[in-house]
UniProtKB/TrEMBL annotation:
Protein name in the entry: D-3-phosphoglycerate dehydrogenase
Pathway: Amino-acid biosynthesis; L-serine biosynthesis; L-serine from 3-phospho-D-glycerate: step 1/3
UniProt KW NAD keyword: yes
Keyword Coiled coil: yes
Coiled coil: 65-92
Keywords: Coiled coil, NAD, Oxidoreductase
Organism field: Fulvivirga marina
Broad enzyme group: oxidoreductase
Single Gene Ontology BP annotation: L-serine biosynthetic process
Residues annotated as domain ACT: 562-631
């Protein structure tokens, strides 16, 4: 077989296309048929049994054709549908088909009638397609197939390949038993089980290599021209029960996704993160500098929440790791909870409900108030604070706010020039500051002292911003008439751990398990938002909305290679990059640079033809943190 040349034998159904063509033909030809559902199911079952090598091929073809009741005109619709269902990694790698057109053979137990129109669009030569042919009656009805064709028989692929007598190495890519048989017959060097569309257990065990996409096949054979790195090699670790939609999206992108329902502590994460390229967390997992030391493959961290104080953003920058979050996806959920809690606290609703469950009827208006006309003081007038301001005003509250930054007052909200001013005018005080380290214990005895007597206090921001002992003392003394706390300095890692806090059992105190953002809507929004940011970063280098990287929104890459260079922000690096490119005679198609205090982020699009040595030279530029190429 050896003469240095490589031949590629590729299966059609569920490999070249995502589907089994006869299954799709059934959906078309049986349109309006009284037994449609039943027949389609039968056809699919027969296909599966056949693909696993458990049913004689001719039997399987005969049975399916009889059930199909198909016509020549159905084939036109079939081709149109199949064109849209070519496997994604095949679509990405059209160049491979072009480059190796002479040596690519489609060998299939399907039918040339629909295979040729599909594969010809990928430069596959019609004479390199080996498959069955339909037979029609005068009216155009499909009545059979060419029974002399070996491909309608078991072991037909083997026989066909023998006839071809190919010179050189033979690589078989397919998802079924009949593809594996070629290797067994000694006619192929390697059999690659293709699992992008279906996984058949009995085939996986037998394969020389499992290839979840054509990218992987090309990568291991050093033939990739269309993408830089197979996506199945990108390991994603998603912690803290992120919404299934996020898992689905990242799997759909082709990543290798591992999911863990709870948070991990530092030691566990140091171990787990070693092979991880993308880490997804929520508010609990601490991504510390120590964790990052073990994270040698990490490209990006996704915070599937708003807060990013749990991540050492500077250490991420120094390591060239981009961080993304969902800055507004759960804003509304927090605001709604705050409103509900303000009303519940003003009416002592939770205590009253608890009494009722204990059989105590305590009907009284004592200590219960409407919220209308009361003053609400919002500390931190960011996304949540500002939205709360609007909703609260519409309920008749008089809104005051205080923020360390200059903020536009919405509606009739009144700006306070100091925290003291806000505390002295508010009947209800609610905290919506971010979790920056300087905010640790920003609210303690001194601030409670300034508050009005019998005021209400809420914290739905971060646990460490409030001095819990001071809060407890002020609730016990009656200075604070009610409190709602959703976030705590120490929170359990999972739902299986006990919640320990001094605040337990205090009167008119609502304690909730950090659920401000825990609504179906918010979690779905987050799961749609964050994966897209990460995938965009990996696929194009775009950093728009990144929490720590300089934000660059990039044009899509067309007919060029993109060099992504992350370096320590030192003078002269751009000049050095361009010198390397000039020394190698490389034409720059576009270049984008943005820096922040820590890093420089340079994107250079270059002409497709380049000397591979240039990559080494760019990697070796002093102060380079990370470098990658997008094809
Ligand atoms: N309980 C939950 O489940 C939940 C859900 C979402 C967000 N959060 C938390 O809520 C907080 C606010 O979220 P956001 O989206 O509005 O953030 P944001 O960044 O839009 O707003 C925070 C605001 O606080 C201001 N600020 C910071 N420190 C301050 C201080 N000491 N005094 C006054 N103002 C200060 C900032 O200038 C900013 O305007 C964050 O801590 C976030 O993590 C909690
Ligand atoms: O920062 C946030 O968005 C909130 O604290 C919610 O965090 P969670 O996703 O861990 O509930």
């Amino acid at each position: 077989m050896r003469n240095g040349k490589k031949n590629f034998i590729i299966d059609f159904d569920s490999t070249f296309t995502q589907v089994e063509a006869l299954d799709v033909l059934a959906e078309i030809s049986l349109e309006g048929h009284p037994e449609r559902k039943d027949r389609i199911k039968k056809i699919k079952d027969i296909t599966d049994v056949g693909m696993n090598g458990e049913l004689n091929l001719r039997e399987s073809l005969d049975q399916r054709l009889a059930l199909l009741d198909a016509h020549k005109k159905d084939l036109e619709s079939l081709v149109e549908r199949l064109k849209k269902q070519v496997s994604k990694s095949f679509k990405r790698n059209k160049e491979f088909f072009n480059e190796h057109a002479d040596r690519i053979f489609i060998i299939s137990n399907g039918f040339k009638d629909f295979i040729v129109p599909i594969v010809s669009e990928y430069h596959v030569k019609p004479e390199n397609v080996f498959a069955n042919s339909f037979e029609f009656d005068e009216s155009g009805k499909i009545v059979g197939y060419d029974r002399d064709n070996a491909l309608s028989l078991n072991n037909g692929k083997v026989e066909q390949l023998r006839k071809l007598n190919l010179q050189g190495d033979v690589y078989v890519i397919g998802d079924g038993y009949t593809d594996y048989e070629i290797k067994v017959a000694g006619l192929a060097n390697k059999f690659y089980a293709f699992t992008e569309n279906v996984e058949r257990e009995n085939i996986l065990e037998k394969a020389d290599h499992v290839t979840p996409s054509l990218d992987e096949f090309l990568y291991i054979n050093k033939m990739n021209t269309a993408i830089s790195y197979p996506k199945n090699r990108i390991n994603v670790l998603l912690l803290e029960n992120v919404h299934p939609r996020a898992i689905e999206q990242m799997k759909h992108e082709g990543y290798n996704v591992e999911v863990y329902p709870a948070g991990l502590d530092e030691d566990e994460l140091c171990e787990k993160i070693k092979n991880v390229s993308v880490l997804g967390i929520r508010s609990k997992t601490q991504v510390t500098a120590r964790v990052l030391e073990s994270a040698n493959r990490l490209i990006a961290v996704g915070a599937f929440c708003i807060g990013t104080n749990q991540i050492d953003l500077e250490a991420c920058l120094k390591k060239g790791v981009a961080v993304f979050n969902a800055p507004f996806s759960n804003t509304r959920s927090v605001v709604e909870l705050a409103i509900a809690e303000i009303i519940a606290l003003m009416r002592k609703l939770f205590d009253r409900s608890t009494f009722m469950h204990q059989g105590k009827w305590d009907k009284s208006a004592k200590g219960s108030f409407e919220i209308r006309g009361k003053s609400l003081g919002i500390i931190g007038y960011g996304n949540i604070g500002a939205q709360l301001s609007v909703l609260a005003e519409s309920l008749g509250l008089i809104v005051y706010y205080y923020d360390v930054e200059e903020k536009l007052a919405l509606g009739n909200a009144r700006k306070c020039h100091s925290l003291q001013e806000l505390l002295s005018v508010s009947d209800i005080v609610t905290l919506h500051v971010d979790g920056r380290p300087e905010n640790k214990n920003m609210f303690g005895e001194e601030q409670f002292n300034i508050m009005r007597d019998k005021a209400i206090f809420l914290n739905l921001s971060r646990g460490h911003v409030v001095d819990i002992a001071a809060l407890k003392a002020n609730i016990e003394s009656g200075k604070i008439a009610g409190a709602a706390i959703d976030v705590f300095p120490q929170e359990p890692k999972s739902n299986n751990e006990e919640f320990i806090s001094e605040l337990r059992t205090l009167p008119n105190t609502i304690l909730s398990p950090h659920i401000g953002g825990s609504t179906i809507e918010a979690q779905e929004n987050i799961a749609n938002f964050v994966p897209n940011k990460i995938m965009d970063y990996i696929n194009t280098g775009s950093t728009s909305n990144s929490v720590n990287f300089p934000n660059l929104q990039l044009p899509t890459l067309e007919n060029a290679h993109r060099l992504i260079h992350i370096h320590e922000n030192m003078p002269g690096i751009l000049a050095r990059i361009n010198k390397v490119l000039a020394d190698h005679d490389i034409n720059i198609v576009g270049q984008y640079l943005k820096t922040n205090e820590v890093i420089g982020y340079v994107i250079t699009d270059i002409d497709k033809e380049y000397d591979k040595e240039v990559i080494k030279a760019l990697r070796n530029i002093e102060h380079t943190i990370k470098f990658r190429v997008l094809y």
